[in-house]
Design goal:
There is one protein chain. About 30% of the residues lie in helices and about 20% in strands. The chain is an alpha/beta fold. It has three domains: about 375 residues, Aldolase class I (TIM Barrel); about 140 residues, Rossmann fold (3-Layer(aba) Sandwich); about 110 residues, FAD/NAD(P)-binding domain (3-Layer(bba) Sandwich). The strands form seven sheets. The protein has an eight-stranded parallel barrel, surrounded by six helices. Strand 11, helix 7 and strand 12 form a beta-alpha-beta unit. It is globular, with a radius of gyration of 27 Å.
Length: about 650
């Protein structure tokens, strides 16, 4: 008997059999061809890896249904049909459906329309359209859709679905949530129409129902339609669960699967991509409500799902029929395969940092813990190891452990030295922080992987030229990390002043009333941790915003948490600290006026300084063949830099 008999049981819908109950959500990391918008080779390999990893269904993300008024951003929206220029032969799409099918998964594609959030720059300078006419803050004029538009776009969805079927897709996911066009019509917070497409829930549902009817008529009864909705929009005046249930009852006979998500990309995107401040399985309550209301169509539940044990429980209890997994399959596309074979401890945990989706906004669209997510083509070009080398890794943090694991998997003889008595580096604090369960799981995963590989781990060992002479390594990777930048304000040497990490290392020294100097990501997250333990914290940040180094999704969640904790957390921006006094901290506010915040403990988190002295010392050893510093010792940054640096440095030892 397999460990997860319900999760890995097949499920047949019409003429399609899903091999298990795990769906791969339409997460991106895709790079369509800039001219034709068809998937490039990197995109094919990305989705093929999910299929090979064991997912039952693999869905391509946000596919625009026309070029006229649909596209909202470049290189994220693929376009199946091209009604203006027939430049998209079926073979460009068959290559990706075939890549998914040959590994036993069902290929699916998400169809969407940006509506009022489409951008003129990407739609030939035309105005975006939506349920209502209005002018955006940036001056863009949104045109209210008339009935001709409604009929035309319903037909666009239908034609795109037909092209998908013709290209070998076995299912389409119609995007009716997250604030896209169909969701804009459904939402009472957005739809202000007074005609038959606005007002009552039935009227607001009319256009989405027309879309579903048009698709069914075009593709026939043997083709699967999955509808994705936001069961909870998490915005004022948004769709209540009662309306969501009523809508599903209206369309139940028009669809084959109901996919329940949450949030709105533009007002509550941190609910679309649940952050560390939300529980795993945060949308399960909506699925339960649907089942209790008598919804019979098979349900797909999504929302920070990563634990196979919890997935099994949900399916076994009949709460959901399928579990959709997004970022956890970016972190490890082999999650289903590893769970099914009893190797759960080898599943690489997702951090829920949202740097993947957040990277859309800063140009670095990657997974922090999986260097190959979206970079699968790298392995095609990577040569095998020619001669096995003696490799020394200096530092047992995330970068050093990643380098050691990768080098050992490549067959090298690896020694890892760490000056402290435990592995983990800067991630050791996760054992204490109330919101760092996911990062703690990842730290423990790395330690487990180090211990299961043939790696000579030497704790309480400092790297030195003498050590190098004794070990005689051919390749050296230095991951010596960084140390806290010291506060230099007047009075910073007082006995009640500590770096923020003291909260985890010596919590007994922290008083009840705290000033945190530095409102970056670390300062804010430590402040929230303190507030949840009953402390009162004032954050003083010299810039005009908190956590400027955080991605847009995580930042929104962080701000929301600070607002929720405003009885214990006060944030002051544009604050220049002058002096740390015995009874508090003096600072200049944004108007140049001197202010005093009283406290009994002062903490600071004002950045990190690379531990680069040891790098230069070890570089002097004359007998190395390759010498690669990685991570924070090359300039303090986020954990991704260390992990990716460690992986690629080890891969370069050939």
């Amino acid at each position: 008997m397999k460990q997860y008999p319900y999760l890995f049981s097949p499920f047949k819908l019409k003429n399609v059999t899903f091999r298990n109950r795990i769906f791969a959500t339409p997460t991106g990391l895709t790079w369509p061809d800039e001219y034709s918008c068809v998937p490039g080779h990197s995109t094919v390999l990305f989705y093929e890896k999910k299929a090979r990893g064991g997912a039952a269904s693999v869905t391509l993300g946000e596919t625009a249904v026309n070029r006229v008024d649909c596209v909202r951003r470049p290189n994220a929206d693929q376009i199946l049909p091209d009604f203006e220029r027939l430049i998209l032969p079926k073979k460009n799409w068959v290559k990706i459906t075939d890549a998914i099918k040959r590994h036993g998964a069902v290929p699916s594609i998400q169809l969407s329309h940006g509506g009022q959030f489409s951008e003129p720059f990407f739609i030939g300078g035309r105005n975006p359209i939506g349920p209502n006419g209005f002018t955006k803050e940036n001056g863009t004029v949104v045109r209210a859709m008339d009935e001709d538009d409604i009929v035309r776009i319903a037909n666009d969805f239908a034609e795109t679905a037909w092209h998908a079927k013709d290209a070998g897709f076995q299912k389409v996911m119609v995007h009716g949530g997250h604030g896209w066009l169909l969701g804009q019509f459904l939402s009472p917070a957005i739809n202000r129409r007074t005609d038959r497409f606005g007002g009552s829930p039935e009227n607001r549902a009319r256009f989405p129902m027309m879309v579903l009817d048009a698709i069914r008529q075009r593709v026939g009864d043997d083709f699967l339609i999955e509808l994705r909705i936001s069961g909870d929009e998490h915005q004022p005046g948004g769709w209540p669960i009662e309306e969501a249930i009523a809508f599903v009852k209206m369309v139940e006979d028009k669809i084959d699967l109901l996919h329940i998500s949450a949030g709105d990309y533009h007002n509550s995107d941190h609910y679309v991509f649940p952050t560390i401040y939300q529980p795993h399985g945060c949308n399960v309550h909506v699925a339960e409500a649907m089942k209790k209301a008598g919804i019979k169509v098979p349900l797909v539940t999504v929302g920070a799902m990563s634990d196979p044990r919890e997935m099994e429980r949900l399916v076994a209890a009949g709460i959901t029929d399928f579990v959709a997994v997004g970022r956890a399959l970016l972190a490890d596309s082999d999650l289903p395969k590893k769970a099914f074979s009893g190797h759960e401890d080898d599943i690489r945990p997702c951090l829920r940092c949202s740097n993947c989706i957040g990277g859309l906004y800063d140009g670095l669209y990657q997974c922090d813990v999986n260097p190959l997510a979206g970079n699968e083509i790298y392995t095609v070009k990577m040569p095998e190891v020619g001669i096995k080398k003696r490799v020394l890794i200096v530092g047992g943090g995330p970068g050093g452990m990643t380098a050691a694991i990768t080098a050992a998997e490549r067959g090298h003889e690896v020694t890892l030295v760490e000056k402290s008595d435990v592995l983990g580096g800067t991630l050791k604090f996760t054992d204490v922080d109330s919101h760092k369960q996911d990062l703690r799981n990842y730290k423990n995963y790395l330690i487990h992987q180090v211990n299961k590989h043939a790696i000579d781990v030497r704790l309480n060992t400092e790297a030195s030229l003498e050590l190098l002479t004794a070990l005689n390594p051919q390749a050296i990777i230095v991951a010596s990390g960084a140390k806290a930048t010291i506060l230099k304000a007047k009075g910073a040497d007082r006995e009640h002043v500590f770096h923020a990490t003291a909260v985890y290392e010596t919590p007994e020294v922290i008083g009840d009333k705290v000033v945190m100097i530095g409102g970056g990501l670390m300062g804010c997250e430590v402040a929230l941790h303190l507030a949840e333990s009953g402390k009162h914290v004032t954050i003083l940040e010299m810039q005009n915003q908190l956590a400027p180094d955080s991605n847009i999704v995580h930042k929104a969640a962080l701000y929301e948490m600070i607002e929720k904790m405003n009885d214990r957390v006060l944030a002051v921006t544009n604050a220049k600290v002058i002096e740390v006094a015995q009874n508090g901290v003096t600072y200049l506010d944004q108007n140049g006026n001197e202010q005093l915040v009283t406290c009994d403990t002062v903490l600071y988190a004002i950045g990190m300084t690379p531990n680069d002295a040891i790098v230069e010392e070890l570089r002097l050893w004359p007998d190395w063949e390759s010498f690669i510093p990685i991570g924070d010792c090359t300039g303090a940054s986020i954990v991704r830099k260390a992990i990716h640096g460690g992986y690629f440095a080890a891969m370069d030892i050939i």
